[in-house]
Amino acid sequence: MMFGLPLWGFYVFVVCAITNMLCYVDRLTITMAAVVLQEKYAWTEQTKGLVLGGFFFGYLFTQIPGGVLAQKYTGQRVLAAALLGWSIFTFLTPVVAHNTTYLIACRIAMGLSEGMCLPATCDVLSRVVPTQHYSRAAALVGSSQSVGIITAVLCGPSIAHNWEFVFNCWAAVGVLWAVLIETVFTRYNPTPLTPAPEEGEIVEDGSSLKDPANSSVCNNKPQLEIIKEFLQHSGCYAVFCAHFGQNWIWYFIISWLPSYLKAVVGVSLEGQHLSTVLIYLSGICGAWTGGYLADTTIRKELLSRTAVRKSAQSVVLLGGSSFFLLVGLVQSNSQVVNVMLLGMCLFCCKFCDAGVTANVLDLSSTHSGLLYGISNTIATVPGFLGNWVAGAILDAFGGQWFLIFVVSIGVSVCCWLVFIYFASTKEILLRCETRQKGKQFL
Q1: Are 269 and 258 contacting, i.e. CB atoms less than 8 angstroms apart?
Q2: What distance in Å separates the CA atoms of residue 63 and residue 66, rounded to the nearest whole number?
Q3: H or E segment at 11?
Q4: Which of 53, 173, 35, 50 has the alpha carbon at shortest distance from 111?
Q5: pLDDT at 200 over 60
Q6: Can you tell me the distance from the alpha carbon of 437 to that of 209, in angstroms, rounded to the nearest whole number?
């Protein structure tokens, strides 16, 4: 089985991947529909930025609750509940689209639901995936998000002609999948199995992962005490900063790419699907490449785990932002040039699964959902702030895109410096016997 998982472990891994795919399908359809709605309702660029950013404002507030609920009720049930919630608001989006205030409120509510998805997913991975496969597991689930984006992009021509129908269809799929998760997968209860780490694998502080001291110490602390402990650890701040920096670029791409291709390259929404698919396929290749290289380097002891995380995140924050800046410098009207540069940007950016995402699992195998929730709360700020800034720049400077790219590389470099200096992979909270991998999930 993949990653040495038993059959039931493979099932729950697939549940995470499909749910994350649907999360991004429902999230990204609005970025293409916004092009249609802007023309229909005469939105300014700033108004469009508020509509797109409203989602992230809601998304901000349920990251930590999502991690807490996943730990209490299992990540799988939280995924089902969150999926049901955002599917309902996907259905309501066409109903309220004529009123900008109601539409923004609907997007905020949808963000509140989707905000629980990634912390719950991180909780699942920490329970069922062996330590030596963290990077590849995170990369595969991260790739499912790109698959969701590609699926949404392929719906572009349909959105241009009947966007309401597309939203209703995906809402129905989400409801059906949520019901299936709750009625089938959460009731599947095979004998738990704890996947073993590779023989002799060593954690950052030099102790063996098979040491009983690392697997039998139980952390029955209140959630606030755990959060306080996280906030006293410099490695967590490194994760928070790096996560913020990578999302500044990521959220701009997923929110504004259709508008950029139309305004600068001159490609209509109907003609964008091939270019956009190629760009996001590059991201999938980057995630798989980064995950494989990271796990292989750690397994062969070519570099320490911390050095691997720093290297992967350097590719994200320096490599990705460099290609992103080139897009702004060139501003070519050639689809080929833009696909190449943005494709390389996303290829580098998706190394984050082997960097920050895996680093969260390194820092806490027992409370990774909560830690990821804290990190993603901070990293969601670029979602609404970055979208607002982009819209404000375009309105203030007559559609000039270059300043947006300059701001992005400045943010990335600052966050990279913090991560390089403070990043760590030493586990903060030791494994708890009652929370061994594979137990209490189903």
Answers
A1: yes
A2: 5
A3: helix 7-41
A4: 53
A5: no
A6: 13
Cβ proximity of 39 and 167 under 8 Å: no
Instruction: Check residue 89 and report its DSSP letter.
Output: H
Give the tens place of pLDDT for each residue, 317-376.
999 999 999 998 887 788 889 889 999 999 999 999 999 999 998 998 788 888 999 999
Residue 265 CA to residue 228 CA, distance in Å, equals: 48
Cα 207 to chain center, whole Å?
31
SS3 397: coil
In contact, 320 and 348? CB cutoff 8 Å: yes
Task: Read off the pLDDT band of 77 (50, 70, 90).
Answer: confident
End-to-end CA distance of the chain: 19
The token pair at 328 is 């702004």
- Check if the beta carbon of residue 377 is closer than 8 Å to that of residue 60: yes
Among candidate residues 206, 210, 207, 75, the one with its CA nearest the CA of residue 130: 210
Is 427 in contact with 363 (CB distance < 8 Å)?
Answer: yes
Give which of 263, 261, 354 is closest to 310, Cα–Cα: 354
Q: Using only C-alpha atoms, what is the Rg of the chain?
A: 21
Which two three-digit tokens encode residue 340? 């190449």
Query: 246: closest CA among 65, 17, 32, 414?
Result: 414
DSSP letter (8 states) at residue 59: H
DSSP state of 185: G
Higher model confidence: residue 224 or residue 59?
59
Map residue 211 onto helix, strand or coil.
Answer: coil
Within its chain, how far is the Cα of 348 from the centroid?
A: 15
Q: Which residue carries 């990190």 as its tokens? A: 375
List Cα–Cα distances, 419 to 84, 151, 190, 355, in angstroms: 36, 33, 41, 10
C-alpha to C-alpha distance for 371 and 380, rounded to whole angstroms = 14
Give the helix/strand (H/E) hosting 413: helix 402-422
Residue found under tokens 């994760």: 239
Whole-prediction pTM: 0.80
Question: Alpha helix (H) ranges present in 155-233?
Answer: 156-183, 212-215, 223-231
Q: Yes or no: say if 197 and 413 are a contact pair by the CB < 8 Å rule.
A: no
Alpha carbons 440 and 442: distance in angstroms, whole number: 6
DSSP 353: G
Phi, psi of 170 (to 5 degrees): -70, -30
